[in-house]
Amino acid sequence: MPVTDVNHDLDTRTLTMTAEFAAPVERIWELYADPRQLEKVWGPPSYPATFVDHDLLPGARVTYYMTSPEGEKFAGYWDVTAVDAPTRLEFRDGFADENLQPNPDMPVSESVYTFTPIDGGTRAVYTSTYASAEALQQVLDMGMIEGATSAVNQIDGFLEA
Questions:
Q1: What's phi and psi for 140, nearest 5 deg?
Q2: What distance in Å separates the CA atoms of residue 146 and residue 161, rounded to the nearest whole number?
Q3: The CATH number of the domain where 114 resides is what?
Q4: What pLDDT, in 10s, does the model give residues 72-125?
Q5: Centroid of chain to Cα 77
Q6: In degrees rounded to 5, what are phi and psi of residue 129?
Q7: Which of the two ends of the chain, N or C, has the fewest CB atoms closer than 10 A to its terminal CB?
Q8: What span, in angstroms and rounded, lies between the C-alpha atoms of 104 and 95?
Q9: Distance of alpha carbon 100 from alpha carbon 98, whole angstroms
Q10: How many independent structural domains does the chain possess?
Q11: How far apart are CA 5 and CA 105, in angstroms?
Q12: What is the pLDDT of residue 1?
């Protein structure tokens, strides 16, 4: 399993996940940079993702939705703030409405993804910082750890296929 550690800290309002992949940094970056590949691993396995807009450039907005087994759609967005390919991606990560517009009633995180070479593979550290401990607790209560872990744990299998 790629996920090696998950921590959340209400005092610092952060959720951090660490994973290790048996693929080089450039290959992991390619997965995030290509929306058709990312669709295969973004979200829990039973909630396939569809990326509508996807451009990893500062100032761009990435939009997507995940579809539940019952056909219900759950949308999200990233407002890309910084890119240092292939090692770092920063974005505001939020929930969206059915029109893929930000949902102001839901938490937004400042997310930083870093990819570092280790032993021929990659260590990925995913850190999300929320505006308040309550916002972090809200996403924890929604199952964010379980969903994110199951999503990231799909990556090695996808890369082997």
A1: -65, -45
A2: 24
A3: 3.30.530.20
A4: 999 999 999 999 999 999 999 999 999 999 999 999 999 999 999 999 899 999
A5: 10
A6: -115, 130
A7: C
A8: 8
A9: 5
A10: 1
A11: 29
A12: 61
- Tell me how many helices (H) and strands (E) the chain has: 5, 8
pLDDT digits (tens, 9 = 90+) for 1-47: 699 999 999 999 999 999 999 999 999 999 999 999 999 999 888 99
Q: Using CA atoms, how far apart are residues 97 and 117, in angstroms rounded to an integer? A: 37
pLDDT at 141 over 70: yes
State whether the Cα torsion 34-60-10-65 is positive or negative. negative
Overall size of the chain counted in residues? 161
Parent domain of 22: 3-160
Nearest Cα neighbor of 74 from 103, 112, 54, 111 is 103
Answer for the pair 24, 117: CB distance below 8 angstroms, yes or no.
yes
Is-contact 23 122, C-beta < 8 A? yes
